[in-house]
Amino acid sequence: MTERTKVQDPKHLLRDYMWAHKWLYAFGFLCIVVSEFVSVQFPNIIGQFTDRLQAHQLTMAGVLHYVGLLFIVGAGYVVLYGFGQMSNGRLGRIFEYQLRKRLFEHWELLPTAYFRKRSIGDLLNHAMTDVQTVREALSQGLNILTNALFLLAAALVMTFRTVSVKLTLVSIIPLLFLPVFIIWWGPKIRDSSRRAQEALSDMAELTEESLTAIRLIKATANEDVEALRFTRRVDEIVRRQMGVFRKTAMFQSVIPFLGSLSFAIALLYGGYLTITRQIQLGGFVAFTLYLGMIMQPLQQLGFVFNNFQRASASLLRLGVLFSELPSITDPEHPIEVQTIEGAIEVRLPSFQYEDADVPTLQDVAFSVQPGQTLGIVGRTGAGKTTLVNLFPRIFDPPPGTVFIDGHDVRDLALVTLREAIAYVPQDGFLFSTTIRENIGFSKEHPTDEELLEAARHASFLEEIETFPDGLDTVVGERGVSLSGGQKQRAAIARAFLKNAPILILDDSLSAVDMNTEKRIIASIDRLRKGKTNIIIAHRLSAVRHADQIIVLDGGRVVERGTHESLLAAGGIYASMVALQAGEGVTA
Amino acid sequence: MSGPADSSGQTRRGAAQPANPADVTERYAQRPQGSFKALLRLLPYAKPFRMQFLIVFVLVVVFNLSNVYQPYLVKVAIDRDLSNGAHNYTGLLHISLLYVGLVLVGVLASFAQIMVLQYSGQSIIRQIRLDLFRHIERQSMKFFDETAIGRLVTNVSSDTETVSQFFTQFFLSMVRDGLSVLMTIVAMFELDWRIASYAMVLIPILFGISMAFRKHLRQAYQVTRTRLSSIVAFLAENLAGIRITQIFHQERRQARAFEVLNSAHRQANVWNYQVSVLFNRTFELLGNLAVAAVVWVGGSAVLRHAILFGTLYAFITYIRQFFQPINALTQQWNTLQASMVSADRIGRVFMVEPIVEEPIQADPVVVDDVAGLVEFRDVSFAYQTGRPVLHHIDFRVEPGQLVGVVGATGAGKSSIMSLLTRFYDPTEGQICIDGRDIRTMAQRDLHRVVGLVQQDVYLFSGTIADNIRLFRSDISDETVVASAKAVGAHEMISRLPRGYDTPLYGKGANLSMGERQLIAFARVVALNPKILILDEATASLDSQTEELVNIGLQAVSQNRTTLVIAHRLATIRHADVILVLERGRIVERGTHEELLALGGLYAELHRKSGIEAAPEENRPHQETYASSVLVHPTRVPE
């Protein structure tokens, strides 16, 4: 996973993809091109038919001859074009798939800091909408472009050859404004539709904001004021949407009007040519049909232009995503380590998030021997989670500040480092898969015994037995929804199964009851003899038996010691204990 | 031979898609269900626009007529002016001008029709949105406990949008395309009923093809959509939990899991595409064959001199015009489906009625006349039946007093607050303000009397001043500044780059926790309720912030009846009465000194907190709290 750090430009991916499938693409193009040459025969056949009919040269057999020709042309075009369309469309969709695959694999390499800065909704929009826009250009856009170019060329050639160059050139004048108009007006529609979307998301944001604060709104009898603010947003949407509609309506009116001007010229001038016998009636009839054929690709060229422009903007955005280099990577020469014992040492003068103005951690120094348990307590925002996230390099500590077994964590291979740490997040994050897959997340093929054993130690076994499908019960949105405490225990079981030298519980007992907490702490004592444990807790009962407790406040270690010594010291820890007395912690 | 069918739809996509990123998952996760009934229930919203819909109908007729007449004009030109020796140049000129005029009328009609229809559609969603928002606001807290806010946001933003497509796109297609099919048929019969009757053979064939494909089309569409929504759900979850994947070093496994979903979607996606291409091409093939057939039938008729050649020309054009609207009609199936699903979801929200009911006839409360006497009379309460959280709570707070409520997490402190604000109704007993049961007051009046400062400070995107006055126009700038000064927030605000006009981003991310608390205090001072509930949040603040907040806290509690839900004993030391809660019961009550002397739970808590002789001793308003003690210390027997 670590070798593929080179930048993947989606433009190159696209080029490589098309090159790799050049024969299929050639086939698709050929089908479409041939189909266009077939299709432009149609007006010509009708024209000839008209002339011969008018000249009374036709018998029933002659009529049938033309019917046969029309049949062949009609069917041939449809079949050929269909093949080309299908082939190109399929190729485009396969590229869509590959692009998403690459994107996900790329995201997997990026550090948490990257996702901290971005909303998942935005990233999803890239993965869904941008990828789709590229695919649209690749399949539909290409089809239409090929179709438009060749249809236009073929139709022009046919009119020049079979009708009249003069008539074509004169009639086509209004049509030439079509692509210009579309290219000019299309982005305007897109702009105003983007503004409408912004108004829409403004409203959605306000709705979310209001409903999140519904208690406040109700408690302050502010419903009317909120409704008024909401109304303003909604009215803004109406205003901007009407702008969009005005522009699209304009668009939809101008195009047929230009077409009709051409047609009127054809009628007038073509009629004149017919009357003056410069062309025949058949030629005139054929020409009116060809005009439709010319109008269509000219329109399409405009659309394709806009389509490609959109796609290239999407490609650019995707390029930015792909150009993000994984900032937390293996060192060039990782230290070869056979086993990790679990000794931790921290000598951190300061740690600051990239996007923060002040350091989150300052002057943090402590060490933990293998087999010891470290408790970390402190208020929300004191920096506890940040601190423990430095060990597995979820956030990268500065060089030479965090050591495991005496090695700087940055000098170890990521695999070695992360294999050595089992981590339980506060929210007990689980995937929406089966319990089996969640608990066994660290192993390829865990046995049932292993899984149940881990669940038992995490006091999760009884629940599993009550679930409809036991270990194979699906959790999450599409399955059994678990309570906060159940999630935490499942996540603890997952960490137990990993059985790593270092275990980190990031306030992961907050939602389980006191007795369960006691049992799990006992399991940790029993199971993890000789291994290192780090327990962050708000409820102090979880850390009272730790070998060492550090108290963080405002990013600094303000107290350290054992439960007894800290209690005796009468500082922050002691007052926290007192506060929690009501919950029976010290009882 | 209408060229590639997938080139359409570029311009018609006028209505904006929901852009809220959180919506993305929702948008792709549309499950196909819902009924036509649900849509009909929203029909009253369209009623005020009957006139507009009628106008649209007329305009569509005009537009369609202009379309239908165009081939006819050419036919006239051919047969009258151009055919065999007729040299009618003036006639030709007239026809050409008429043609342009006709198109112009059609274009104008179409422009007007789009504007009128979309305006009606927009007005309809506007009204649905406003009603929906007000309806949701009216709901009781229980509703919000049980409903995800994201879902409600989707209801308000994208479901309404989808429903509006029924009133615009679907309606328009039915009228325009339906009429245009009809008119084309009529025109053909006008021209020559015999050939027209032959053409009618097409209708059952078209119908048959559509039926044959419909099931496949729908199935392919739904499978693709479902699989796409799995991809979105997977990505959303995995991006949120990427840390877990990385720590457990399971990138490969998750990539494989993604591969399974991704390739399943690719398969369905290609299949869906192929089915729809096949459908479109079949339609087109039929169209082309129909032209050949018309040439056959019409050609032989011309041979027999049964019709003129111009008529044949018009027929060829009509036959080709016939297919477009039918194709467009078949595409409306998905619009209808989606609107029904959305209408169903909106309908479900509308059906919910608030559990906390407004009194049928409420005497208005004159806020200025309220003294602020609060009584809980033997109140019991349960969020869920059978699991009571408060038992027989009984206490009385005199106007202007400060009451502290202490107890462990889950003892029921917050429930007391929620009952006094009528977020919930008690299961037993009565809560009175100035002797009047709060259930007889309009909730609006109640909430003007009772103010609330919660643990979580909600900030709105807007300026600091907006957040203090909560966007109310009746609170002046002077009041805002005065309120901020009262709680000691003025200095902090003045230091900000744009003072009171500093905009707050991302729920107040540019303020510290303490600063946010101060804004919440200033808010309450500005609103000036007679009774105030303070759910103290200092438990999670760092030491410097605590001090800041303490000062603000003292300012707010002045001159009003105040209930403080305390997480630290220091805050309520000077309260007139302290209520000690344990498992939903008041177990002790009295002043700080009395409770200490009692030597019960409070004394125990106090002893452990180790805050003797706290520095707050010299707080400014101490005298006001030292007033009369109402309730004598008692140990309530359990």
Summarize the structure.
The complex is a heterodimer of chains A (587) and B (638). Chain A is of the alpha/beta class and 587 residues long.
Our estimate of the beta-strand percent of chain A is 5-15%
How many beta-strand segments of chain A? 10
Quaternary state reads heterodimer
The helical percent of chain B reads: 55-70%
Separate helix tally of chain A: 20
CATH architectural arrangement of one domain in chain A: Up-down Bundle
**CATH fold type of the largest domain in chain B:** Rossmann fold
The fold-level CATH name of one domain in chain A is ABC transporter transmembrane region fold
In the sheet with the most strands of chain B, the strands line up as 6-7-8-3-9-10-11
> If interface size is counted as residues with C-beta under 8 Å from the partner's C-beta, which chains form the largest one?
A-B, 167 and 170 residues
What integer value in Å does the Rg of chain A equal? 36 Å
Question: What average pLDDT do the residues of chain A reach?
Answer: 86
Task: Explain what this protein looks like in three dimensions.
- The complex is a heterodimer of chains A (587) and B (638).
- Chain A is an alpha/beta fold and 587 residues long.
- Among the domains of chain A are: 1-162 and 303-327, ABC transporter transmembrane region fold (Up-down Bundle), CATH 1.20.1560; 344-420 and 500-583, P-loop containing nucleotide triphosphate hydrolases (Rossmann fold), CATH 3.40.50.300; 433-493, no CATH class.
- Helices cover 63% and strands 9% of the residues of chain A.
- In chain A, strands 6-7-8-3-9-10 form a six-stranded mixed sheet.
- The longest helix of chain A has 53 residues, at 223-275.
- Chain A is elongated.
- Chain A starts with 9 loop residues before the first helix and ends in an 8-residue tail after the last helix.
- The model of chain A is unreliable at 1-5 and 582-587 (pLDDT under 50).
- Chain B is α/β, with parallel strands linked by helices and 638 residues long.
- Chain B has three domains: 35-192 and 334-354, Up-down Bundle (ABC transporter transmembrane region fold); 193-306; 367-635, P-loop containing nucleotide triphosphate hydrolases (Rossmann fold), CATH 3.40.50.300.
- Helices cover 60% and strands 10% of the residues of chain B.
- Chain B has 22 helices and eleven strands.
- Chain B has helices at residues 23-28, 36-41, 50-82, 89-138, 141-146, 149-191, 193-199, 202-240, 242-247, 251-303, 309-351, 413-420, 443-449, 464-469, 477-486, 490-495, 513-527, 543-557, 569-572, 592-598, 601-609, 622-625; strands spanning 374-384, 387-397, 402-407, 428-433, 436-437, 450-453, 531-535, 561-565, 577-582, 585-590, 634-635.
- In chain B, β1 (374-384) and β2 (387-397) form a beta hairpin.
- The longest helix of chain B has 53 residues, at 251-303.
- Chain B is elongated and about 120 Å long.
- Mean pLDDT of chain B is 81; it is low at 1-32 and 610-638.
- At the A-B interface, α3, α4, α6, α8 and α9 of A face α1, α3, α4, α6 and α8 of B.
